[in-house]
Amino acid sequence: MRKKIILSILSALLFIGCNTQHKPRLDGKKLIEKKCSQCHNLDLPPKTFEDEKAPPMMAVAFHIRDFIKAPNESEKVPRAISFVKDYVIKPSVSKSFCDKHSLESYGVMPSQKGKVSEDELEAIAEYMFEHFTLKNLNDAQALQNKLNAMPKGERLALQNNCLSCHKVDKKIVGPSFKTIANTKGNSEKSLIQSIHNGSKGKYASSNGAIMPAFKSLSDDDLKIIVEWILSFKK
């Protein structure tokens, strides 16, 4: 009898397990870009504009985290996520953590009921409080300071992934920038054409690797990058 009961319980548990549908984990980053970026700037550090519809998302995340009431630090983010899920659907002046000046500038957020699901809101809020942190802000500012200290040509080369295939004095996929600068026949005009249209077989050391075309680069940016490359000419 006891054996039959145990078998019945195990069978029931197996049945429940087989029929339990696990919710897929939603991508908070994609959702925040799709659902929130029309009104909130998502940059870190944030950009501000005269005609912005809502405060930058970093400011929103920092403000909620600072003002949310919780018995201890570990409870702050879970309570902040719950606040976002409630406020986005049922916003009001009484619930808002915004100061008077911000409310006068932006007004109360319109309800997003019917435009975003509860599960989507949870994923968005989780991403907000994972991404918009003081550490990530400091890291982003340090990177921006590093970029600002670079020659503009080097910065553009880095931002357009040129340094994935080339280094200043070391061959990777393509030749080093020093090799390019000191190769006979390479002029400002020829390098601009090579970058804009791409090339193949120009350097024997590249073993047939193809230089892709960078047609999206503006003429001004192309010129700045090429001038920087040619600065390594002996």
UniProtKB/TrEMBL annotation:
Keyword annotations: Electron transport, Heme, Iron, Metal-binding, Transport
InterPro entries the record matches: Cyt_c-like_dom (IPR009056), Cyt_c-like_dom_sf (IPR036909), Cyt_c_ID (IPR002324), Cytochrome_c_Oxidase_Subunit (IPR050597)
Record has Iron as a keyword: yes
Chain residues that bind heme c: C162, H166, M211
Pfam (any one): Cytochrom_C
Ranges of residues in domain Cytochrome c: 23-132, 148-233
PTMs per UniProt: Binds 1 heme c group covalently per subunit.
Annotated GO MF terms: electron transfer activity; heme binding; iron ion binding
Source species, domain of life: Bacteria
Protein's name in the database: C-type cytochrome
Source organism of this protein record: Sulfurimonas paralvinellae
